[in-house]
Amino acid sequence: MNSTFFADTVSETLLIPLYMRAKESRRGEKAIIRDPVAERLVEQIPYDYSKFDGAVLSEVGCNVRAWYLDNVVRDYVKSHVNPIIVNLGCGFDARTQRTTIESSARYYSIDLPEVIAARDRLLPPAENETYVPGSMFDEKWMAELKSANPEAEFLFIAEGVVMYFREDEIKSLFQKLLKHFPGCEIWFDLCGTLSVKNQNKHDTVKKVSARFNWGLDNGRDIEKWDSRIQLIRQSSQGLFFRNRYPFFMRVMTISHRLMFRFCSIVGYRLS
């Protein structure tokens, strides 16, 4: 395997979805998502990925949510005149490369400085992409981004991120986005309460040090944080590519309410 220096400070949680996308991409025409960048990075980043082999639910789930959120981005770009896509907690995600449709769309990828430093070495930004080192909760980049693009229409994506923070932290993020980007949309995947409660049995999380800190079953509960928050849609990953899930998961998809207790994808408009 081609070895590239990789800082220990970069969380293992970045590597789980990266590996799952790479594995899926290698399925060729049968793949849920094609991601040659992920394939290359897995070869470059030295790590024992084999401990994640056999994690079928995470493998399918990671790729379905990436596919779903990629489509959210594509639809937003097509339906807005001056779109800016902001990837919060971007890790090693190559969403810019997967979803660039036209030159009018611009992308900002935000993560902690050590992550951006590693990303800059391994995955230099595309021509229409800017890397921002810092916390996704920092208002400094928010103010600068809005000031530099006063007429832009903003879409925020936080994939595989919010479950690692407390509810009050995510609530504060919403308040900051409401302040700086009125009219924006934010989409992310939610862990349900059953997933948080049983995370020690999770097929990949149990093998790393990170822990889920927050889960929610009903996406409408977030609307209670502020009257300016409107749920656009809450979807179950289990409704898509059902043939790829184990039988027991296909049975559970009969009940949306039950599936939401495990995971879902939500989108909100902040006015």
TrEMBL record:
The keyword DNA-binding does not apply. Keywords: Methyltransferase, Transferase. One of its GO terms (biological process) is methylation. It comes from Alistipes hominis. Coiled coil: none annotated. One of its GO terms (molecular function) is methyltransferase activity. It comes from the Bacteria. The keyword Transferase applies. This is Class I SAM-dependent methyltransferase. It holds the Pfam family LCM.
